[in-house]
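Hi everyone, sorry if this is the wrong subforum. Our group has a chain we'd like a structural model of before ordering constructs, and none of us has done structure prediction before. Sequence below.
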Amino acid sequence: MRSVRARAALGATVVVALALAVAGLAVLLVLRANLTDQAGLQAEVAAREVAGQLALGVAYDELKTGDEEDHPVQVTDEDGRVAAVSKDLEAISGTGTDRVAPQRPPAPAATGDDDEERDDDDATVGPARGEVSTDDPEFTNGTATVDGDRADYRFASVEATTPAGLTLTVHAGAALAAEQRAVGSVRGAMLTGLPVVLLVVAGVTWLVTRRALRPVEGIRREMAAITASEDLSRRVPEPGSRDEIARLARTTNETLTALEASVERQRRFVADASHELRSPIASLRTQLEVGAAHPELLDVTGAVADTVRLQALTADLLLLARLDAGERPGGAVLDPGALVREEVSQRTGDRIPVTVSVPEGGGGFEVTGSRAQLARVIGNLLDNAERHARAAVTVVVRAESGGVAIEVTDDGDGVPGAERERIFERFVRLDDARGRDEGGAGLGLAIARDVAVRHGGRLTVADAGERGARFALWLPDAR
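Answer:
Right subforum, don't worry. Here is the predicted structure as tokens:
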């Protein structure tokens, strides 16, 4: 079942079916209990009526048991012997004994004028009337056959004491046929209506889900078209609602925008890299071809310079490729002050001396990351400062906001405010002619920012007072 609509319809149907089944069972149980209690009340009334007659001393043969078919009666003594039964009672169960033939116990005291005279003359002879127990009766379920018809009954057992002091138990029943018919009718209605309800639930769920997922199908079709056409400028339709599907569409469009920008940047990167590589390769090939034809004209120094430039450009491209692939920086703990001093000490050919300012004892700074990559950042910032400075390049290491700041300042022309973010893009040079002549490909600052970000830091540029630019590298303290 691969369709979301089918799964939703099936799930809703199953849940509703379970809910209706539980609710129906509860209704049937409550209905049966109420009807059974009602039958028990009727049986209790019938039993107390017969018990009252026994308490008044009515003879067994003269007991009035009402409608024998609706309320069969069985009277037993303390020893379980049957004293009396209702008319036409042929069989009974659920009352403690299944006998229906009376086994006459001592008869109750006779009633009439003699009793009244005896009561008037001598109150010490015995009680003139018995009593009916006021305790709650016992209820049982059983069957009874009356005049050939067998049925289920709810029996109530009530004790009565005759005027002669004999304790009898009256078992009177109330038919459960009405309860069984009502429960059967309700059960039949539920079993008949349940499939209809489930079909309605499944159909409504299918339609509602189909309508709700219609925008998703539109998104899917558009994404399929984008994949087939490779046109990342297209966007999926966004519903006017504010639900999850609308958010999905907006997120998808944002992803397409980011993907389009990434692909465009990749294309531009490939084009710029091809352009930058073409120049030193063409120059090197020309020099080698001239040298092959005329060895005396071979410019070895120029060929070496072009090879070095080509090697440096290739190294920059490889580092950018590793950064784009998600290469994580190392976990070495480094001293940024020592790293700056070491990098500056290796720059023996700079046209402008570099002044380094590090707190006494190194400042106790520590950062975590790749030594080679962070050294590359410092070297790129120094190369940029040397390229644009007039007479001074300064490096300052200091604490700042829970981290370490390394500031490289030059006294050149500075960076215009509108270009301060653009210079960190790849292959961007504010002075293309001078940059190419000096060997710069516009990758140094881009590499520096990418490395800083991947180390949890940042790289920004600002004015250095009245003249020049200040590049600030901030890295989080390892502690």
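For your construct planning: The longest strand covers residues 149-161. The chain has three domains: 4-183, 244-324, 332-476.
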